[in-house]
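Can't paste images in this forum, so I'm doing it all in text. The chain is below; anyone willing to post the predicted structure tokens underneath?
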Amino acid sequence: PSLHHEHWDPLWREAETRGMPCNFHVASAGIMNHVTWQGYSPDRLLAALSCFMFMNNSRSMVNLIFSGLLDRFPRMKFVSVESGIGWIPFVLEACEYQMAENMVNRGGLKLSPKEYFHRNIFASYWFEKDRTREDIEAVGADNVMFETDFPHPTCLYPGVREHVQASLGSMPPAVQRKVLYENAVRVYQLPSPV
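Text version of the structure:
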């Protein structure tokens, strides 16, 4: 059954009770067949499919927001892993617009899409750097975590420190701490490194 079906409620109840987040890895909503045009070389196909995979996580996020699951389990945390953050402001704006346009009575949902996201959903990024400051400000520094994607072939190795400086160096130290470790400590209930 779909993840918001009551069949899964014992799982969500136990995870919420234990404070255990659920991670949606990149492409968690599945890869659609025939998403690329025919005739791509293997390396070109891999590059194109890798880009499509980020957008699959938007499907998981939208389903979480509109499903009612987050009303039944308001303390449950979900993390979009290895999927970047640049797409999130657009998807949240689209969710807000579509809820206002198509759900006159909000279908029983208690919060707005942005409120659900800020309360229940987190995201991680690694390669993005051109608009990281704007994206973190739009998504919210409390909901973003940095990753290296090590040991995948597309990971930030070597050069992790340089990339962190390029993507976060202009941001206030408090925001850098949140993104680099404090949010992960809070979401995953880890011991604080400092």
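Helices lie at 9-18, 42-67, 69-72, 88-102, 113-120, 132-139, 160-168, 173-188. The chain has a mean pLDDT of 91.
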